[in-house]
Amino acid sequence: MTSLPPHFQPVACDEPGVYRTLLESTKAIPWRIDWATMRFTYIGPQIEALLGWSPASWQSVNDWADRIHEEDRQKTVDFCVAQSQQGVDHEADYRAITRHGEYVWIRDVVHVVRRPDGSVGSLVGFMFDITARKQAEEKILQLQRELEILSYRDSLTGVANRRMFDTVYPAQWAKARDTGHPLSLVIVDIDYFKQYNDHYGHVQGDECLRRVAQVLDTAASHPGHLCARLGGEEFVLLLPGTDAEGARIKAERCRKLLAQEEIPHARSGAGRLVTVSLGVGTIVPGAGDDPGVFLDRIDRRLYQAKSAGRDRLCDAEA
């Protein structure tokens, strides 16, 4: 039999101290709990560097449970106990409280050690610091939430966009139908906006859209009410829980607030300032009513207001 060179000879590792050195040189924190007594028989010294608690302070499972963030404690303890009782290996993510009152995200990987008769003898496992991973995941979720918000926001004016309106309108319609409460719409169009763009340019036109949107959003400012840009120079106010008189008052407020802005419009056929025309309507939806038909009805009222000379509202069919 060919002999191995001296530097390839296997090294005997039968001394417990070798294994302990290997365990305690890793970032993972090893531990062992005796199932019968529910007491720690070992925990790696790395625990003190991570959480600030000395290894000697980890006496029983109560010490472990007490050092779990209160929002995670009950579900984590219940899950781990149930899995251990069934003899199932498992993992648990939770926030562990440090000695200084801060917290660290931990992933506990647990292995159930059985006796020859199949009963649970002990639990052994490793604690891993996954704080950086959790922070990265939270950052991704935050970015996703921000992107979702942006996807429902008109990038030019900052108010809600057509997608948001198309999402919220059917939901508010169904709610009004179920509760018997009124639902009002106000569709708004800037008068002679093409002429405004032609005269002042598109940069100034964009600024005009932003200022009008801000006025309308201010007028609609009420819990549950929505101001959205439908496209171009057209906007809509969705006013759940608002009756016909309230919707008319809201529409007139839009006109008054815009007049106070005094945005010059030298090419308007309705005066020397930027004005709007509005279609207004209210409904208590019934089972046979259709939200699309109602929206079309208010749109027709808008064009009646425009046909009648602009800078006015129409809340009934001619």
TrEMBL record:
Pfam families per record: GGDEF, PAS_3
The PAC domain, residue ranges: 90-142
Annotated EC: 2.7.7.65
Catalytic activity: 2 GTP = 3',3'-c-di-GMP + 2 diphosphate
Gene3D superfamilies (alphabetical): 3.30.70.270, PAS domain
GGDEF domain residues: 181-318
Domain of life of the source: Bacteria
InterPro entries (UniProt xref): Diguanylate_Cyclase, GGDEF_dom, Nucleotide_cyclase, PAC, PAS, PAS-assoc_C, PAS-like_dom_sf, PAS_fold_3
Entry's transmembrane regions: none
Name under which the protein is recorded: diguanylate cyclase
UniProt source species: Telluria antibiotica
